[in-house]
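Onboarding guide, step 5: your first structure request.
Type a short instruction followed by the sequence, for example:

Predict the 3D structure of this protein.
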Amino acid sequence: MDRITDSFLQEFSQERQLGHKKQSDQFEAFSAYCVISSEYDGEFDPVELRTGGGNDLAVDAAALVVNGDIVTEPEEIDDLRARNNYLQARILIVQAKTTSGFDGARITDLADNLCDLFSETPKLPMSDELRRFKELIEKLYGNSTAFRKGSPDLVVSYVTTGTWSGDPHLTIKVSAAIQRLEGLNIFETVTFECLGAREVQALYRSAKNTVEAEFLFSNQVLLPDIEGVEQSYIGTIAASEYMRLISDSNGNIRKSLFYENVRDFQDYNDVNRGIRSTLQEDRLRGRFVVLNNGITVVAREMNVVGNKFTLRDYQIVNGCQTSHVLFDEKDQLDGVHVPLRLIVTRDEDVASSVTAATNKQTLVSDEDLKALEILQKELEAFFEAHPVEKRLYYERRSKQYSAVPGLEKTRIVTRPQLVRSYAAMMLNEPWRAGRYYKELQRIRGNDIFKPGDVPDPYYVSAVASYRLEYFFRNGHIDGKYKPARYQLLMAIRNFAEPGVVPNKRRDLEKYCIRLAERLWDPNEGPRLVQSILPVIDSAVQATEADGILDRDTVRTQNFTDLILKGVKSIPRI
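The system replies with structure tokens like these:
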């Protein structure tokens, strides 16, 4: 392994707390991170997407990206369909080897194995991880009537530490592999890429950087000085140039840019059909600039040279619907211009007020604007205010901490992770935690991120989740219990601090501090969780699961009730 790749691998392993793993295992997680980050802008745990081990069919990692989000539970697919009225998917497969070259036999074998994996009746034995991934694929294709723009895309990446030189023999093998996979007739496109050291180094650098885009903004006016705003412009931009802001290097729309836009793309409702028809009709296309309300972009860094603008760490806070329709019609944008408001500020209050104001103009409800309230900033500050050894990092913006050197990435808590952990631990609803997080937040909208909430319950929920994953990663808990991770979070609270969660602020703060201290304790934390495992085993035996702990077992209210009942009988420690 060359010294650059090796240094990247060491940095990655340190940040992900994988130093105790074999180099081959580290490289599989590293390769998964590099490849999947090129398709998904948000923070994720590549270890959770690994499938390597016995009966892995030479697949070392696999990810399913649906409507721009990584999906790990079948319920999320149902929620995304209900929420967006469509499904658009990319299936990502990674094979990673530390060898210094590429092997034609591996290419052929991988294609053969994938043909079996994606068949309706696979014959090859599969690991538990692959079986769970297969469940996701089956759920996805079970919703094929909701596919937009055709079937899912398949991207297969074969990663080594060598050099890909386009060897004719290997190129023929790759072409044959693509042809075999295309022959299944279930993919819109099939890509099979061989990535060597240079390619994976470039992907790693890109994954560590915040979002950046360069574009021409000729028709603009610099606005007068505004308190809290470094620079601001208003004008119109060619729609083809605007595509540079919202497209990634693979030509996909950057879903993470709309993280602070409080409403998802609503598919082709009446408003969006109107936007599309304007773009599709020659006589109306030129009027788009006066018919559309436009786009608002908030950036934290910008360079300007003449009419060439470079943005870094930016969000599209208003214009999600327009952006998605423009992206879908990107082949019909000649002569189309878009109103653009560009604001550069590092003041979080200014950024939040701009987002709130622009979304109010589009009649987004007060409930949808909860993500903008002061609690979000309080959570970020509260998480970071703890001593280093007990510090977590709440990510309010996509890739907010990705470029921070030396920061353990396992300590980053994303909004989806926090919503799920809080629902499981504090609301006793672990069976719902596998849902798409925005749908879960909608269902329990009056109980999650309420104005005036104290940050302590959110912090202790994040601590419990972080420590639980740490115990899994370091072998303190058998990985077979991973399907019940949310039930474990619920059980931890009910066992360590039984009774009703206090309502009074001071009592609630003390309650959460006691629980967090026990979880952080290097001896008591693992012992606390180990005490609960027999209850999980008993609950599995009491169900009709044939003693198997899997997704189907943990999804039911009955399983949750069995655990709550069992926790009450455990002797206190």
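Each response can be followed by summary notes, for example: The first strand starts at residue 61 and ends at 66.
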